[in-house]
UniProtKB/TrEMBL annotation:
Keywords: Membrane, Transmembrane, Transmembrane helix. The chain crosses the membrane at residues 34-52, 58-77. It comes from the Bacteria. This is YcxB-like protein.
Amino acid sequence: MKKESYTYTYTLQYGEAFEQYYLTAFLMSRTKKAAVKAGLVVIGFGSLAIYGTLSQNVIFLIVALAALIEVCVLILMPRSKAKKAAKIVEEANKELELTIRNDGTIQFAGEESRQLAGDETACTYESVNCFVIRTDREHTYCLPRGVVPPEEKDDIRAYLKSIMRYEKA
């Protein structure tokens, strides 16, 4: 990092909060989620096809329905969790002050600082609207890209990439 620390003050909007919670709803990478969904769809439709040809085997119908229900859960659950959490954040309408330090810590004003790479789930997701920084299973920070000056975006991105897993969302 070029500076010792970067401090940003902002109010989190509904869209940014939704994006934060949606990206971190499940501890699976984007490719793993897609593979699981595709596998469940194949199992579901394959079981339906077998049930269609061998209609006396009800077990294939049950397997197909279970797989299709699981796909729906994988698609709808993160969205509903994110909507609920984003609504709570929006209603709080709280001004946040986030500090990212050169020593590998991150901190909201008034809270204790946390290591950026706190455990094996630590990662950063960069989306169109924000940087979502997950330090461990329990703590996630959202830094809207709009509050980061253009000359600091590349520096923040490079620093986060050097410390933790980094994914484009």
